[in-house]
Amino acid sequence: MQKKISSAQYGELAGLFGLQFLALGIWMVPLSAVLASHGLASITPYAFATSAIATLISPLIFGAMADHHVSPVKVLRWLSVASAVAMLAVGWSIQSRWPAPIVLLWIQIYALCAAPAPSISTTVVLSCLGHSRKQFGPIRASGTFGWMVGCWLVSIMQADFSVKAQCIGAAGWLVVAAYTFLLPSVAPPASVNRVTWKQRFGWDALVLFKNPDHRVVLMATVLFSIPMAAFYPYSPRHLQHLGFEHVSAWMTFGQIMEITGLFALSGLLVEWRLKWIFLFALGVSVPRFLLCATDSKAGLLGGILLHGLCYALFFVTGQIYLDERVDPSWRGRAQALMSLMNNGIGNLAGYLGTGWWFNACLGPQGMRWSLFWGVLAAFSAVVAIYFLGSYRGVGTGGRAHAHADTLPTQETAS
For 367, left (φ over 0), alpha (ψ -120 to 50), or beta? Predict the structure, then answer.
């Protein structure tokens, strides 16, 4: 029996994503400019790598906490307060001209606090929804809009190169913490078994890989994240190469299309099987990169637009897939594992791999953009072929896997 959710509760859940991603956007977008303006440009790559490192560690731990001990709403509240404090410490250390290793240490502490928040909030929202396929997409779109508002707020307050950005972001995290008191209480699933240390650290979530479809979705997430990681580092440089000004504004085309895709997702999830939505997203990624490979203004803008669509339809569908296919007592760890595969392993491999490939495409005549994006298109096609050949799904004819009852899995048509 599906839960009923009022329009007021729906708005509250959308507000959670909006406020949280506002704070995340205020942190991420101006970070490199703030570091450079304070003589810390040399640590910029390592500063961004802290988020991937943190995603390899903390989401599983806090996801396990939400599954075994404490309401995920309370976990999110504590993480938001800790993120605010750590963000202020980052700003203070930068402004005080502390040594670069100390600044980097505080950035890593912030990343450890903030990294679990998106997966925890996703757990909270999905546990409250009556029909995740229909309702989750528009709610998640509020997060993308919040990210954009955060970027606009930084520019309006002239904080693009100032530690004021960290102060604004810290205030945003405190607002998120206060907002959690408005959210419905979500109790952790009851457990009669003694919790082991393996479970406390969330390592037991790796058992999800035993399920063939879970394994395919998680592995495809890692592989698809690799070419997608080229978006923020190299699309702006390509825009500059083609003569665009106000590059940040042009980059929001991808976010606009992401919002459109998230609203469309609610209808697609009702009409289509999850398998075909995954494949559609993977398939669209091929022309997305091929458009960029034309090395033209129209082609690059078209590729940026399709990026948002690919991101929304694949990664958000993955979150809904886990919500439907994994037992409620595993939701926190499952969403944390998805975050680890995407933002941790996938992005880390993507930043390093596409960075190496970018340098390899630099020739005597300049950057060979067609080659750079063309190979990423081919890589995306390989991921799509892998998914098509490996994912079986659960049809209406019965159980997909003979051993499914031994895993933390719920069966549903997907």
Answer: beta
Helix or strand holding residue 185 (H, E): none
Determine phi and psi for 31, rounding to 5 degrees. Answer: -55, -50
Q: Which two tokens stand for residue 397?
A: 């004819």
Structure pTM? 0.71
Report, as an integer, the average pLDDT of 158-186: 88
Q: What is the CA radius of gyration of the chain?
A: 21
**Helices 72-95 + 164-179 axis angle, to 10:** 170
Q: What is the pLDDT of residues 348-404, one digit of tens each?
A: 888 788 888 988 998 888 899 999 999 999 999 999 999 999 998 764 333 333 333
Average pLDDT, the chain: 81
231-263 burial: b if 16+ Cβ within 10 Å, else e: beebbbebbeeeebeeeeebbbbbbebbbbbbe
Contact 21, 80 (CB under 8 A): no
> CA-based angle 273:275:277, to the nearest 5?
75
Alpha carbons 45 and 47: distance in angstroms, whole number: 5
Closest CA to 164 of 91, 55, 261: 91
Contacting residues for 100 by C-beta, under 8 A, at least 6 apart: 40, 42, 43
Q: How far, in Å, are 117, 188, 203 from residue 200 at the CA level?
A: 17, 14, 8
Helical (H) or strand (E) element with 8: helix 7-28
d(CA 232, CA 245) in angstroms, rounded, equals 16
Written as six digits, the tokens of 174 are: 């405190």
Phi, psi (degrees; rounded to nearest 5) at 70: -130, 150
Q: Containing H/E element for 186?
A: none
CB 141 within 8 A of CB 277: no
